[in-house]
Known about the structure:
The protein has 291 residues and is an alpha+beta fold. It has helices spanning 16-23, 39-43, 46-53, 66-69, 86-93, 111-114, 252-257, 261-276, 280-290; strands at residues 2-5, 8-12, 29-32, 57-64, 80-85, 102-110, 133-139, 148-152, 157-164, 167-172, 215-219, 224-227, 232-237, 241-248.
Amino acid sequence: MIQASNSILRINTPTKEEFLNIWRQYQPFLIEGVAENWNACKNWSNDYLLKVCGNNTIPVEFHSTIFLNNYNYVKEDNYDRKKIKLKEYVDIISGNKKDDDLEYYMAQIELEKFFPELIRDIDYPEYLDRKALISFWFGSPGKAFASVSTLHFDQEQNVFVQIRGRKRILLFPPSNYLSFYPPVGERGSHAHFSKVNPINPNFELFPKFPWHEKIEVILKAGEMLYIPPFWWHHVTAIDENISLSFWYDLKIQDFLRQKRILSTALNILPHYTRHSISSLTKLRSIIKSFF
């Protein structure tokens, strides 16, 4: 059963063929009736995580407290990571341990590497003919937990799964790359991030930004959201929550099978390459990511 709701398509328990038929349209869509049956959605309480892997050491992002207040898009010098045990991180987000000078977020942790004990609780979505890299996100909306991803796009196919709690996700289709005001040419910055704060519109500073094209999704536990490559998105925690990203590398056939993805990539590539041309390693990474 498929239905349109709040400007985004919803599909219930799709077959691989049904998924790919919608995937070809190069639009985000919601999947229901799949992840809600995983043991992860049923079992991943803090108590369970502490029992199974509480002593695992993981890298956690931390920022100065003014990072999000000033809405700094991600640069190499305004955030860092340090390694702590999961049980220490749970203490922090539970309010049992405070650091008034820092905000924390367990973001984009490679699940198989840092939490191999949890793999048994999930099922790999078998919609695309390639292996996914799974990233684990664990955050909270509290003051000391910077569970916000500033506006950006990814170069991979992303099946984003909400395991616990809720997230607010703002999506924007990839029209003109420069209309998203990326920090092109700014030293130390990342060209797939935007300077725009979409939850606090500034029409004078960013007049070309496509404000009217916003799609807002409140992603609930057990729901999956497909985010196409190069679609801009901004993510905010509503509750203490856990999410998984299933990242699938772009393949040549994707450019041939998905509508508009090739023209989108060609719009971005010249600016993106120029931004990173100073580093041969980065340039090779860009070429690999696109082709």
